[in-house]
Amino acid sequence: MTDPLPRIAGDVVLRRLAASDLPAFQAYRSDPLLGKYQDWTVKTDAETEAFLIRMSAVKLLQPGEWSQIGIANLDGLGLIGDIGLFLRSEGHDAEIGFTLRRESQGRGIGTAAVREAIGLVFEQTNGDRVLGIVDARNLASIRLLQRVGMHMAESRTVMFRDEPCLEHIFAISRQRDA
Fold first, then answer.
1. Which residues contact 128 (CB under 8 A, 6 or more apart)?
2. pTM score above 0.85
3. Distance of CA 152 to the CA centre of its chain
4. Given this model, what pLDDT does residue 115 score?
């Protein structure tokens, strides 16, 4: 099977992460406002470089494994964000997470990238649904999930960073031919 990346998504391209993305990746991943609702923590340059190298070659959408792909500008392919994709072990549900540097937000870039990544999941797997799990306070991400056609499937109270948190689970189902 050929690699499904790169893929153009509006004004950006979804592509493999690379070791050369280290400065851009560290810059937005070190932004405390972007990390506020995220499950990741800032890593050292060495840890991040190893992660980028691993993600540059990982086979996408393997059951039980996360894969991370880059969101890059069409002109020059500079990294401006990333999308995490996880196909659950049973293969029926996938999960998506996304981060976009603040300078690139508010222009439809995240919406186009997430929409394209959802299409990638349905094209490359037999999964029935893609889920987006979001902190109830993260209104920008909630609006993005709604723009790509997801609906709120459930809410639950969890512990996040040692504090109670209300999470909303958004879902979009594969369109089956009638």
1. 92, 93, 173, 174
2. yes
3. 18
4. 97
Q: Are 53 and 44 in contact (CB under 8 A)?
A: no
- Which helix (DSSP H) or strand (DSSP E) does residue 52 occupy? helix 45-57
Residue 34, both tokens: 């972007």
Instruction: Measure the CA angle with vertex 54, ends 29 and 93; round to 5°.
Output: 80
* DSSP element (H, E) containing 147: helix 139-147
Q: Count CB neighbours of 110 within 10 A.
A: 27
Per DSSP, which regions of 1-150 are E strands? 7-9, 12-15, 66-73, 79-87, 93-100, 129-135
What tens digit of pLDDT does each residue of 123-159 get? Answer: 999 999 999 999 999 999 999 999 999 999 999 988 8
Tokens of 56: 């540059």
The continuous run of DSSP H or E covering 62 comes out as none
Rounded Cα distance, 87 and 91, in Å: 6
- Assign 133 to helix, strand or coil: strand
Beta-sheet pairing, 93-100 with 129-135: parallel
* Whether the Cβ atoms of residue 131 and residue 153 lie closer than 8 Å to each other: yes
Task: Judge whether 19 and 56 are in contact, CB under 8 Å.
Answer: yes
- Residue in the block written with tokens 């089956």: 176
Q: What is the pLDDT of residues 1-15, one digit of tens each?
A: 689 999 999 899 999
